[in-house]
Amino acid sequence: MQTETRFIARYAETDQMGIIHHSNYAVWFEAGRTDFLKKAGVSNTNIEAKGVLLPLYEMNCQFKSPAKYEDEIIVLTSLKQISRVRLYFSYQVINAVNQKLLATGETMHAWTDKVLKPVNAAKTVPDVYSLLSQAVN
Question: What is the spatial distance between Cα 103 and Cα 95, in angstroms, rounded to a whole number?
Fold first, then answer.
């Protein structure tokens, strides 16, 4: 499963050079991940209501080409890997007009309880774990 999240790059996201500041890619990854979970049939809100959190413990991003103000952006998101204790998402950020690859990245998340103690997702939220296991790309 791969989802496509679209939006327009905002002026507030640009830096002095007139390009999108690198810090915004983490926000864009989160938007893609949130959209992915909803389209997979489970939302962050639903997961958290079950007492489980997905804190980020690692992120990487490789910048290929700059995005600029008012570019139409596509974030392609997929669930690369899932285990009972971790989730790995991958992202491609693309300019929608010319299909140029702007960035790629990954985020790694842990399944935890509300005090950030690791949990076994297959036992704690078996319905969520099963649903997301089917969405692995």
Answer: 10
Q: What is the dihedral of CA 36, 135, 81, 64, to 10 degrees?
A: -50
pTM score over 0.90? yes
CA quadruple 116, 90, 78, 12: dihedral, nearest 10: 90
Of the listed 15, 35, 113, 127, which one is catalytic?
15
Catalytic status, residue 35:
no
Answer whether 32's CB lies under 8 Å from 76's CB.
yes
- pLDDT attached to residue 137: 75
- 77 contacts 36 by C-beta, under 8 angstroms: yes
